[in-house]
Design a protein that fits this description.
The protein is an all-alpha fold. The chain has helices spanning 10-26, 28-37, 40-60, 70-94, 99-125, 131-150, 170-173, 175-179, 181-212, 219-241, 245-248, 252-265, 272-300, 306-335, 337-357. The chain has 15 helices and no strands.
């Protein structure tokens, strides 16, 4: 990563990713503990208000280097893991069975739309704002989220979680993954696909369009727009096909393999338009399998283990994504992004084919 003076900031970028996503992976038991003894609504509100305080703190200190805000980035990562896990818990409480897939797809759709709108607004006004103005806008968003979570009515649903009672340790709650083979398979597939596909995208979104497709400086913005459109379509497709027998019979591994194939297909054509078209399909398939697997894991998980499993799934997938992002970035500099894509899709494809060949026990042969 080079700035306008030609200074390489790749090390700083790697440190930012590690602080926000890798460190919280090791603090997952503490995050899970929050949901064991507190209402998910209360945890979500506290996290968003903590985000307000964190943004104001970052805006008020004099930043002399990335190491100065490293502890704050760790806290930011912990808050994000808690919020993402909390949203899964809330959706699991309020939407049982197949309705959970629709709820997750709607949640994902609204998130993608918000991300797109925020990106457009940021690109239009961020160069006109000072640090405190950016901090004020960001803290306002956190405050609005806290108000939205405060409006949730979970009094009836929360009884199912038995909040406040003495509960087994995080590791003991995760024993459900050892006992339930199908749940474990879906959990591992989720972490694998998010880590590899999202990690590749995070590294490729700036390198691929400029260095490999020969696009100008607007290339990354075009690729990100294509990616957001693909994610949006994938989320909508999940919502529209929930309950369909033909769709439900398609194995998640098959969708994942198709996604890896689309990753590779982006390198087969010199035309940026065709390559971006395949990238669109790749991101669409990634979103479909993301929503399907996250919904299946949450729906199949016993309610008493939902906090531990949701935190493990969130922190594990984000930690894996960070690791693959850093490795893909370094690999692109040494071997080229095409070889990175081949390595990631090849490794992921082999693991998915191995999963397809391992039968699911009849006692757990759920759809």
């Amino acid at each position: 990563m080079l700035d306008d003076r030609g200074v390489d900031h790749a090390g700083d970028a790697a440190l930012v990713y590690a602080a926000q996503w890798l460190v919280p992976l090791f603090l997952a038991p503490a995050t899970s503990w929050l949901f064991n003894y507190n209402s998910p609504r209360l945890v979500l509100i506290a996290c968003e208000l903590g985000g307000v305080l964190l943004v104001c703190l970052i805006g008020s200190i004099e930043i002399t280097g990335i190491t100065a805000i490293f502890p704050l980035l760790v806290v930011r990562g912990l808050i994000d893991v808690a919020v993402k896990s909390g949203r899964l818990i809330v959706l699991r409480l309020q939407f049982p069975g197949e309705r959970l897939k629709q709820a997750l797809s709607i949640n994902s759709t609204s998130f993608v739309i918000g991300l797109a709108v925020a990106g457009l607004m940021a690109s239009a006004i961020v160069h006109r704002l000072d640090l405190w103005s950016v901090a004020l806008i960001s803290s306002g968003c956190f405050a609005l989220a806290a108000v939205a979570y405060a409006s949730l009515n979970l009094s009836a649903a929360s009884k199912e979680m038995a909040v406040g009672e003495v509960r087994p340790s995080w590791w003991r709650q995760l024993s459900v993954l050892r006992v339930d083979h199908l749940l474990r398979r879906r959990f591992m597939l989720f972490c694998l696909l998010v880590a590899t596909m999202q990690g590749y995208h995070m590294a490729a979104r700036t390198v691929f369009p400029i260095r490999d497709l020969g696009m100008d400086a607007s290339g990354p913005a075009w690729l990100q727009s294509i990616a957001i459109a693909g994610v949006l379509l994938g989320s909508i497709m999940v919502a529209l096909t929930v309950g369909g027998e033909r769709v439900s019979k398609i194995r998640d591994e098959v969708i994942g393999l198709a996604g890896y194939a689309m990753m590779l297909a982006t390198w087969l054509f010199a035309s940026p338009m065709i390559a971006l078209g395949f990238y669109f399909v790749f991101m669409c398939l990634h979103e479909i399998v993301f929503v399907r697997l996250s919904a299946d894991v949450m729906a199949d998980c016993p309610m008493e283990a939902v906090p531990a499993v949701s935190v493990a799934m969130t922190s594990g997938s984000l930690g894996g994504m960070t690791l693959f992002t850093i490795l893909a970035g370094w690999g692109a500099d040494f071997a080229g992004m095409a070889n990175v894509c081949l390595a990631i899709s090849g490794m992921g494809g082999l693991l998915l084919m191995a999963s397809l060949m391992v039968p699911v026990p009849r006692s757990e042969g759920r759809a």
